[in-house]
Amino acid sequence: MRIEFTYFYPFSGAENSFIYLLAAVLFLLAVASFIKSKFDMLNPSFIYCVCMAGFCMLAALYTEEWDLPMHYNTAGIMIVMSVLFLLGSHMAEYCCLTAKDTLLKKECEVSRGFFISWPIWIFFIVLLLSFAYLSYTEFLTAASRVTTETEFTKILKPFINGLAHQQIIMSRWNS
């Protein structure tokens, strides 16, 4: 019998899980990338690190219900990819700063970007909220076919099992 080495002991059956530490490291890499890119939210390394940190925080919240193992090789790949994205953005910035070619210098110039007016933002937010509402009502309708529960956390597992065993047919997914 071997003893697993972990930084944070999980709440359930995943013996080799250190998802909390991974989420913290990815969050710190996201903050470092955000600061290094001069607070540019469209920097690819920042976007990648924020997404991965968010996914890890979500997985950390549901480790007990999902019985989710996080292996060292998966965490290593996520950290290495975040560091590579960060190094790639540093290399691109270095190339732009040291460019001697006039054509390359012209491509490296920072443009102001574009501005989207408030009515368009409000339209897209309303559109997004309506899509979210329609998806949620379709989820509740489909979940009512396999369970009579009303609490979201109790609906989720039978719903996923119903999708996996093809007891539930979603109108938009299976067309």
Structure, described:
This protein has 175 residues and is mostly helical. 64% of the residues lie in helices and 0% in strands. The longest helix is centred in the middle third of the chain and has 26 residues, at 72-97. The termini are far apart. The model is unreliable at 1-8 and 10-14 (pLDDT under 50).
Number of strands: 0
Helix content: 55-70%
Structural class: mainly alpha
Global outline: flat
SSE string, helix = H, strand = E? HHHHHHH
What does the largest sheet look like?
Answer: none
Radius of gyration: 22 Å
Mean of residue pLDDT values: 77
Distance between the termini: 50 Å
The number of helical elements comes to 7
Summarize the structure.
The chain is mainly α. The protein has helices spanning 19-36, 44-61, 63-66, 72-97, 102-108, 118-143, 152-164.
Write the layout of secondary structure elements.
Elements: H1 19-36, H2 44-61, H3 63-66, H4 72-97, H5 102-108, H6 118-143, H7 152-164
Helix pairs in contact: 1-2, 1-4, 2-4
Question: What keywords describe this structure?
Answer:
175 residues; mainly alpha; disordered N terminus
